[in-house]
Amino acid sequence: MSVDVHPCCLTIAGSDSGGNAGVQADLRAFHAYGLHGCTAFAALTAQNPFGVSAIHAVPPDFIAAQLDAVLGVYNIRALKTGMLADAAAIEVVADRIVRHPEIAKVVDPVMVATSGAKLISDDAVATLTARLLPCATLITPNLPEAEVLWGRAITCRNDVREAAKALHGRLGCAVLVKGGHATGDLAAAEDTLFDGEQFFTYTLPHIENPVSTHGTGCSLAAALAAELALGHALPDAVAGAKAFVHRAIATSYWVGPDCGVLGWGADAPKPRITSQTAGE
After folding, report:
1. Is 184 left (phi over 0), alpha (psi -120 to 50) or beta?
2. Catalytic site positions
3. SS3 category, 249
4. Distances in Å between the alpha carbon of 148 and those of 109, 112, 142?
5. Which residues in the chain come in under a pLDDT of 70?
6. Inside any domain, residue 1
7. What is the structure's pLDDT at 269?
8. How far lies 279's CA from each of 82, 106, 169, 203, 235, in Å?
């Protein structure tokens, strides 16, 4: 007797004991899309919206064991990676996921905070660039991360496009440069996708004074994985995921004194999309 096999998504990331970001945020996004979520923890953190007080790295062999337990067993259509603490963790993740070309892979290259602070070591950045990013279907750098990967400053919209095109040429994957914290000529809430042929620009209104934005990068990558797992074309997947996060920010709510969490991102209006063929 044949049975319907439900699609699944996999997150490979760190935990957030406050439930705002990391694996917890990813599972919330997967469930919002009606998908079963599998997990591989790469780090454990003690954190809340005010900061991270402790990090416990998961040994690479245990990361590998988690991946071996779910890959090829569950109907994983797409995965996302979040912060991987060191080169050894990146190596083992890249080694496992490259064996599964049938799975769409969203890699959030968590390297540099929007403040400019580096989050991983130089050798981990080198390993990320050499091993993990070329495995990706899509990478989602924020502006500081795109600058590190491109090796140049990004000061205008044309720079964003040049960076995305250059990274696609070097890594062979689609590139979504996130502009949520941009200033000046780079409009906030404007993201740019280059899929190898066309540029797509996604814009939504800026949300003034939201209760919380903690975990938006994690939630976006997870929503992108969910969109791809459901078979949506990449430009449409980005639109859906961006709308999901925008709605989550708009509906964020208080869960403690001065402590907020993202809301439910379902039933969100889609962003305005403009496209341009490369070279135009």
Report:
1. left
2. 178, 213, 215-218
3. helix
4. 11, 8, 10
5. 1-2, 112-119, 180-189, 265-275, 279-280
6. no
7. 53
8. 32, 26, 14, 22, 18
17: Cβ contacts below 8 Å, ≥ 6 apart: 45, 46, 47, 48
CA atoms within 13 A on the CB side of 104: 24
Q: Would 36 be classed as within a structural domain?
A: yes
User: In this structure, are residues 265 and 29 in contact, taking their beta carbons and an 8 Å threshold?
Assistant: yes
| pTM of the complete model | 0.91
Residue with tokens 């980005």: 238
The pLDDT value recorded for residue 52 is 84
Give the amino acid at 194.
F
Contact assessment for residue 74 and residue 36, using Cβ atoms and an 8 Å cutoff = yes
Q: Ramachandran region of residue 53, left (φ > 0), alpha (ψ -120 to 50) or beta?
A: alpha
We report the CATH number of the domain holding residue 30 as 3.40.1190.20
* pLDDT, tens digit (0-9, with 9 covering 90-100), for 44-71: 989 888 888 888 989 999 999 999 999 9
DSSP conformation class of 134: G
Residue pair 112/75 in contact by the 8 Å Cβ criterion? no
Domain membership of residue 3 (yes or no) is no
Give which of 34, 35, 55, 53 is closest to 44, Cα–Cα. Answer: 55
Query: What is the number of domains present in the chain?
Result: 1
Identity (one letter) of the amino acid at 252? S
Spatial CB neighbours of 255, under 8 Å, sequence gap ≥ 6: 261
> 63 is in which domain, residue-wise?
8-277
- Per-residue pLDDT, 2: 62
- Give the DSSP H or E segment for 212: none
181 within a domain of the structure (yes/no): yes
Write the burial class of residue 253 (CB in 10 Å: 0-12 exposed, 13-18 middle, 19+ buried): exposed
Give the C-alpha separation, 9 to 82, whole Å: 14
d(Cα 64, Cα 109) in Å, to the nearest integer? Answer: 19
